Write the structure tokens for this entry.
Amino acid sequence: MNDYFSKTAIAALLLAFIVIVVGAYVRLSNAGLGCPDWPGCYGQITAPDDFHEIQKASEIYPDSQVDSAKAWKEMFHRYLASTLGLFILGMAFFAWKQKKDKPDQQLYLPLALVVLVIFQGMLGMWTVTLLLKPAIVTMHLLTGLLTLSLLLWTVLKQQGFHLKKPVLPLIKKWAKLALLVLAIQIFLGGWTSTNYVALYCPDFPTCQGQWWPQTDFSEGFTFIKEFGVNYEGGTLSNSAGVAVHITHRLGALLTLLVVGTLALLLSRNSDKSLRTISYIILTLLTIQISLGIANVLMLLPIQLAVSHNAFAALLLLSLVSLNYATSSSTSTRAS
């Protein structure tokens, strides 16, 4: 029997990952304000391309410099995000239809995803209308990753994924801790990116030639900022930007220790599935840390910067998978 819900959920999961990667590319290529309005672009459903469209756009928005390339990047991301919204609506519809014949069919999580994707769309609108306000852009990123994680959880539950052997309580605790630490680190990475301070420390492991340069954590982590200011390019002072960047580095070190320890614990487990997950986590963690260092040393090339976002999402998915697997398994105590 065709399970339309499962197929739609898998498609939505894959598309959500693509949307996150493309969104990172739009942000990192400074195309976040490629369209000064929402949901259209300079008053039309496509980006202005030919001479007459560009001229008209300039007349409607005289304070904006029309850049067709940036506008198309932004609109392509919006098209993808809108398609993802339709897929999630489709999931909710199929879940409701299949619930009649399958009492164990998921329903509440697909409905929650509908609410979440609507909120995500609102954040996308505010990202533009509030001129890349860091708190909004960071929340937009985090909500996108939450959507991705819940889609994976939905797919795993629908597929009946579970471990064949019981899991030690210690591993369950470390899995939860690792997921929490990674979530905090992703927030710090998003805050670093949305404040444009990724290169405030252009050297490694030192920062501006010092182990601990002057910092201003109060300014760096002020989340409620002035309205009407264009935050593209960043507005933080040097000391505030350094504070954010250093905090992200310290978070990376903590993530390495916690997630690395988790991978080591998993690698010693008798369950082959857990050992496989440990290798995946360790590989993704190594790549992610290496990309972070390379981005600094190579002055943030767009390919590496986008890859850093992509592998953060993949590492998150690996930990979500692990937490789902351990939560669906019974516990056992070490003999």
